[in-house]
């Protein structure tokens, strides 16, 4: 089994002498205490590398002292700086509250900062977290799924447009690219049937927390079944993660006494500035948890009694129930190891995410607990639910697809931003040159002079390369009186600065006239050479016909040309 | 983003208010933003601001009155018959300064809403009747609620056998319909209903009235309603000029409880003029 560390980063200094009716606003937050607890947590996380953990996770919650990391990407960046070898992940970004492109950019940056050690995670967020962001719960799930698709495209495609229900995006090509190809696997909590189905379809690792062993098992079994029946793959133990609070001391009594006190504090700090008076509508469906009916019926009596109480005996009873159900695995190293071995074997998860800092446990208590865990528990857990070596993810699209396709050189260069045509402002004159045996006609164009601020202009004709066959050139001409132009007429597109002449294209008119529709995809002819026409350069598109054939009528409605090119104004002033 | 601004934030906040209307003191819950909407409770009076109130509050300013005397059985002067509540509510609308309202009525509230909407067709923008009482249907009579013991009432009112799993913060949370406040208040409400209908909630005058309703109407029914059978909903949808019948699968008399998410999506779509499909709902 792989073992990771996630901490909720609970604010430790909330006074206990007020009731849940008091609005849990940030007036209870002393930034000095927050700074101190951040410092302690970062030190505790960094210790994981030395102690032999596989990685560390940061997560996020909003508007609560239960977890004062509202942006886990920030925490992850700090953890990357304090580690060298182990993985660093987020679990995860609340997609409803962020722009998907920003999420992808952050993930790619974190993967570069860590040189490929980053574990990406996404979450739907708690219903409460939608309230003060005023986010729409009714479209929450469809936005989550669309956002995930956009993130994958950002991370795996060179450039794309997205025309979706909730986002319309153009020309997205994020920098940097992630180091991992592809970046992943992704992690997400998946407890409802909709989330299970989504995770199984996308091979996302499913995480569970705050459920008894049987609750984990039911959710993971549902995932296995959906993966097999609906998506045709077998999910192994590496596809599942169980998250547990643990607290270790040399003996059970100490661990339990400390754990119980910390849990009472945890209940207090779960308060929020706005307590929604009833479950928020639209976040789930009526059928999200139908598959859990049996297990919930079995454990419901116990669960119903979990909660804060001021009565000491009742608190002890509550704590023992919660210890039994894995809310807090508190005990000596042997108890914790046995409990987790049993839990992981029964529920069938190959990733354990442990949290040590329950409620307001002190830095010293956590360090002691963590060292005991690393020394006595971690080696035992390593031996169970071992995953096979990770296989490359076949479902993700690698970067090189576009490049490979275009090696066949079928495509024209598409990324033009300008079209030279009869109506372009660059056209300064028509050419008509009568020679004894031939007539040359065409259009003379001029690249504008340097701007008054010194900015030069360039017109660039992209020539062929490995990825494309050059920019498109389209031409059709009719002769005077509507007669056809001779196929052997010579077409030439050139650019000159008055000293040297560069040829963009040269060929027979027949090559154009045999294409029935030059605007059909890939049907036009292409530039044969890359040419850059700078300030004041002249560009000429000419056709030379034998003298005994019809002369081109440049004014005719049916006579046209188009050259897809790139016009660049190099602004040098601010 | 092309979405409408329909975040869930503001609709979670509500106030409990009280207003004097002549000799009657009326309490109501209010919250949300948008055009005014009157939401009339069924046999169980409102206990608080619930998920369905939040959902309606996303599109409307919701006024959820507690029918005077309904919980205590001590009815104010002027309330002798169930339909007298329509007069009080008409006064409430005037006092609120609203010219037109959206109107939602559940069960006995549906009966009162149908009265109000037929009495004053110009007052109601859009009408929603949920498992509404009041019709006299020989082939599918309303349950004789006053004769049912607790067990029988439970099975008549709900299609679910007891425990349900609904969404909580970290996964499914079990709830027991039988032990909830709603269930206890059903029995209180039945007594009030009997007192104000002379023991007979079916009203022969209701059918001709339905034709006078001018508002676009959504008739919502729990498919397994044992209190007011689905046949009543079919008749209402036929008799009301601009009505559509939506049937919620797997729900009894209180779809807000048993199929709460389908219920709120259905009403929200109606109020937003959206034709989007809702899982577990079919239109007749």
What keyword list fits this structure?
heterodimer, A: alpha/beta, 9-stranded parallel beta sheet, 6-stranded antiparallel beta sheet, 24 strands, 32% helix, B: alpha/beta, Rossmann fold, 11 strands
What do you see in this structure?
The complex is a heterodimer of chains A (574) and B (284). Chain A is α/β, with parallel strands linked by helices and 574 residues long. Helix content of chain A is 32%, strand content 21%. Chain A has helices spanning 31-51, 72-82, 100-113, 127-132, 140-156, 193-201, 213-231, 252-269, 293-304, 312-324, 333-347, 363-382, 401-406, 510-513; strands at 2-6, 55-58, 87-90, 93-94, 118-119, 122-123, 160-163, 168-172, 187-189, 205-209, 240-248, 329-331, 351-355, 418-421, 427-434, 438-446, 457-461, 472-476, 490-496, 501-508, 525-526, 531-533, 538-546, 560-569. In chain A, helix 2 (72-82) packs parallel to helix 3 (100-113) and helix 6 crosses helix 7. With 284 residues, chain B is α/β, with parallel strands linked by helices. Chain B has a single domain, classed as Rossmann fold. Chain B has helices spanning 51-57, 84-96, 108-119, 150-157, 181-197, 206-210, 230-239, 255-258, 260-271; strands at 14-21, 24-32, 36-40, 61-66, 101-106, 124-130, 163-168, 171-176, 217-222, 243-248, 281-283. In chain B, the strands form two sheets. A nine-stranded mixed β-sheet of chain B has the order 1-2-4-3-5-6-9-10-11, with helices on both faces. Chain B is globular, with a radius of gyration of 18 Å. Chain B starts with 13 loop residues before the first strand and ends with a strand. Chains A and B meet through helix 4 and helix 9 of A and helix 1, strand 7, strand 8 and helix 9 of B.
């Amino acid at each position: 089994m792989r073992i990771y560390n996630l901490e909720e980063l609970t604010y430790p200094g909330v006074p206990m002498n007020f009731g849940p009716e008091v609005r849990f606003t940030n007036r209870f937050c002393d930034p000095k205490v927050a700074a101190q607890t951040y410092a302690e947590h970062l030190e505790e996380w960094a210790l994981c590398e030395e102690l032999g953990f596989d990685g560390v996770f940061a997560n996020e919650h909003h508007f609560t002292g239960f977890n004062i990391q509202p942006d886990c990407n920030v925490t992850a960046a700090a953890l990357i700086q304090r580690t060298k070898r182990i993985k660093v992940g987020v679990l995860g970004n609340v997609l409803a509250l962020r722009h998907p492109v920003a999420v992808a950019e952050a993930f790619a940056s974190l993967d570069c900062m860590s040189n490929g050690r980053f574990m990406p995670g996404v979450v739907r967020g708690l219903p409460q977290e939608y309230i003060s962001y005023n986010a729409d719960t009714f479209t929450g799930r469809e936005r989550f799924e669309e956002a995930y698709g956009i993130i994958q495209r950002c991370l795996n495609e060179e450039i794309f447009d997205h025309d979706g229900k909730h986002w319309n995006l153009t020309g997205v090509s994020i920098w940097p690219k992630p180091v991992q190809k592809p970046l992943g696997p992704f992690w997400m909590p998946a407890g409802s049937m909709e989330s299970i189905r989504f995770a199984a379809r996308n091979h996302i690792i499913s995480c569970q927390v705050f459920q008894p062993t049987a609750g984990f098992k039911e959710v993971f079994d549902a995932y296995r079944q959906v993966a097999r029946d609906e998506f045709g793959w077998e999910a192994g133990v590496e596809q599942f993660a169980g998250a547990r609070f643990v607290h270790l001391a040399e003996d059970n009594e100490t661990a339990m006494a400390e754990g119980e006190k910390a849990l009472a504090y945890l209940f207090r700090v779960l308060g929020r500035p706005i307590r929604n008076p009833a479950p928020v509508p639209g976040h789930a469906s009526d059928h999200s948890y139908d598959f859990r009916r049996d297990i919930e019926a079995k454990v419901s009596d116990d669960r119903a009694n979990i909660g804060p109480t001021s009565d000491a005996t009742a608190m002890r009873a509550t704590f023992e129930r919660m210890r039994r159900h894995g809310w807090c695995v508190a005990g000596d190293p042997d108890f914790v190891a046995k409990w987790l071995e049993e839990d992981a074997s029964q529920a069938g998860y190959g990733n354990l995410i442990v949290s040590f800092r329950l409620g307001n446990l002190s830095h010293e208590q956590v360090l002691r607990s963590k060292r005991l865990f690393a020394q006595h528990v971690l080696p035992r857990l390593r031996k169970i639910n071992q995953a096979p070596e990770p296989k490359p993810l076949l479902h993700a699209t690698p970067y090189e697809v576009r490049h490979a396709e275009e090696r066949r050189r079928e495509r024209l260069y598409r990324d033009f931003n300008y079209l030279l045509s009869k109506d372009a402002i660059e056209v300064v004159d028509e050419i008509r040159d009568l020679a004894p045996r031939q007539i040359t006609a065409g259009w003379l164009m001029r690249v504008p002079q340097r701007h008054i601020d010194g900015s030069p202009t360039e017109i660039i004709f992209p020539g062929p390369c490995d990825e494309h066959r050059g920019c498109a050139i389209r031409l059709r001409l009719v002769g005077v009186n509507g007669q056809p132009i001779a196929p052997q007429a010579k077409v030439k597109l050139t650019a000159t600065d008055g000293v040297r002449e560069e040829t963009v294209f040269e060929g027979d008119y027949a090559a154009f006239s045999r294409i029935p529709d030059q605007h059909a995809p890939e049907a036009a002819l292409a530039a044969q050479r890359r040419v850059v026409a700078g300030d004041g350069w002249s560009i000429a598109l000419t056709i030379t016909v034998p003298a005994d054939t019809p002369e081109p009528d440049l004014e005719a409605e049916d006579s046209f040309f188009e050259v897809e090119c790139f016009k660049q104004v190099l602004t040098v002033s601010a | 983003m092309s979405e409408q601004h329909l975040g869930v934030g503001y609709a979670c906040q509500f106030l409990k208010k009280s207003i004097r209307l002549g000799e009657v003191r009326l309490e109501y819950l209010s919250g949300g933003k948008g055009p005014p909407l009157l939401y009339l409770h069924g046999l169980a009076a409102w206990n608080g601001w619930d998920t369905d109130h939040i959902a309606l509050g996303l599109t409307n300013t919701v006024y959820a009155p507690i029918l005077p005397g309904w919980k205590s059985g001590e009815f104010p002067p002027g309330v002798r018959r169930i339909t007298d509540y329509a007069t009080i509510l008409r006064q409430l609308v005037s006092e609120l300064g609203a010219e037109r309202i959206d109107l939602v009525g559940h069960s006995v509230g549906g009966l009162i809403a149908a009265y109000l909407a037929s009495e004053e067709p110009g007052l109601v923008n859009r009408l929603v009747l949920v498992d509404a009482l009041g019709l006299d249907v020989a082939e599918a009579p309303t349950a004789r609620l006053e004769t049912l013991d607790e067990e029988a009432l439970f099975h008549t009112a709900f299609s679910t056998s007891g425990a349900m799993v609904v969404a909580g913060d970290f996964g499914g949370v079990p709830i027991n319909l039988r032990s909830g406040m709603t269930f206890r208040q059903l029995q209180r409400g039945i007594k009030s209903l009997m007192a104000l209908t002379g023991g007979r909630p079916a009203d022969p005058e209701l059918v001709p009235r339905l034709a006078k309703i001018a508002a676009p109407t959504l008739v919502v029914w729990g498919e397994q309603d044992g209190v007011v059978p689905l046949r009543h909903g079919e008749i209402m949808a036929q008799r009301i000029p601009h009505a559509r019948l939506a049937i919620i699968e797997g729900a009894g008399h209180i779809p807000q409880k048993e199929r709460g998410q389908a219920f709120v999506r259905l009403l929200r779509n109606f109020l937003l003029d959206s034709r989007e499909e809702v899982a577990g709902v079919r239109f007749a």
